[in-house]
Amino acid sequence: MDSSALFSMQDLPNGVLYTVPGVISELKKYKDPRLKYWDEFIEVKEPSQEFIDTIEKASASSGDDLRLSPVDKSVLALAIETESTVLTDDYSIQNLAKILKISFRGVGMKEIDEVINWTYKCTGCRKEWDKNYPDCPICGSPLKSVRSRKR
Ligand SMILES: [Zn+2]
């Protein structure tokens, strides 16, 4: 489960639910009163480095890298390690799960049904780049990530 799944708490499956320490810290930051009940049915576990590495590589090549926090990545890494289904409403997490063939489920929202490719579009000259540069190599304006139109 990522934090979006924990926040919505709807429709959670029975059985062991895992999350990473980072998600728990995020929730503690918001002082969510439900936190004390979650202890009973959530197992908090840090994924092994080899699975983090797998996620790092995959997210760099899919373009999801910038949209995923280290916590998001560890949620995915833990899902591979524990062979669990990822519960998340975050589209970038779902996207990478899809690419890596990790099963996932939306909690409050509908899941994505196709892989999204991200490209970087210049806010000045509108050129699209496959890579995220600090600024546009042509005109120097900032780039923003957009869904690729390529299929
Ligand atoms: Zn430009």
From TrEMBL:
Keyword annotations: Hydrolase, Metal-binding, Nuclease
A GO CC annotation given for this chain: preribosome, small subunit precursor
InterPro entries, alphabetized: NOB1, Ribonuclease_PIN
Single annotated GO MF: metal ion binding
A GO biological-process term: maturation of SSU-rRNA
Ribonuclease PIN domain boundaries: 2-81
UniProt-listed Pfam families: PIN_6
Protein name: Ribonuclease PIN domain-containing protein
Organism in which the protein naturally occurs: Methanomassiliicoccus intestinalis (strain Issoire-Mx1)
